[in-house]
Amino acid sequence: MKKFFAIFSILAIGFIAGCAANIDEELVGVWFWEADSSMRYVLNEDGTGERGFPYVIETFTWEVEDDELHISRDAASRGQVRNEVWEYSLDGDILTLYSRQEYGVVLRYFAEGEAGQNAELSGIWERDQEDELALTFSYTFNHDGTGERGFPDDTETFTWFTSGERLFIHRDTAEYGTIRGEIWAVTVYEDSLILENKQVDGVSRYYTNVYRPAPPEENYPEHEDE
What is the pTM for the complete model shown? Predict the structure, then answer.
């Protein structure tokens, strides 16, 4: 009898191991959608996950097989695909998904890393230009993650955060057909700023700092009254 239970235990363990989800550890983490950084994928190492916008989140389980990402949604509305299959490729911190069920659907995501506001960006940056008589385009990055950009008589507002060497900008409003969520590679060197767009090839912008605010008050040590 003991021998029977020993064999049964071995078979059971083997069965469970065989049924365990096949996980690509490089996919584990949080990923931002390039078109709108408020939309995120969360892929957990136990094969569970969630995705969506802050106001609507759905859960799922996932695994990989032959360079394909298989997603089984925990719930799906009538007419929606419950079991999705995506071919995927990784290029550094860029994840590209190609739908195997809907022709032409390609989505790109960027790894979250350590998200927050890069203090080096806080301030006002004016774009470098050859024509000194032209109106100056500028960026204003505030400590609280809000910002403004544009020309003196035509500006737009946005929220922003950084993750590693990425700058994520979410425009408060966007005209139809324009990108609302922007992703830029950012380089800051002393008073120089270089922004390289990660969604449109060949778009780079150069800026010079003209105002750098003091650090937020909460960063200063508190002094007791004598």
Answer: 0.63
Q: Are residues 129 and 90 in the same domain?
A: no
Tell which residue, 38, 147, 45, 165, has the closest CA to residue 93: 165
Gap between the Cα atoms of 214 and 119, Å rounded: 10
Residue 193 CA, chain-centre distance (Å), reads: 21
Dihedral over alpha carbons 20, 24, 28, 31 (to 10 degrees): -130
C-beta pairs of 17-26 under 8 Å, 24+ apart in sequence: 20/47, 21/46, 21/47, 21/61, 21/62, 21/63, 22/63, 22/64, 22/65, 23/47, 23/62, 23/63, 23/64, 24/64, 26/90
Tell me how far apart the alpha carbons of residues 11 and 158 are, in angstroms, rounded to a whole number. 57
- Tokens describing residue 124: 């006002």
- Other Cβ atoms less than 10 A from the Cβ of 3: the count is 7
pLDDT in tens, 170-201: 888 877 667 777 889 999 999 999 999 987 88
Q: Which amino acid is at 40?
A: R
Domain of 78 in residue numbering reads as 21-111
Q: What span, in angstroms and rounded, lies between the C-alpha atoms of 21 and 58?
A: 19
What is the sign of the dihedral through the CA atoms of 104, 105, 111 and 115? positive
Q: How many domains does one find in the chain? A: 2
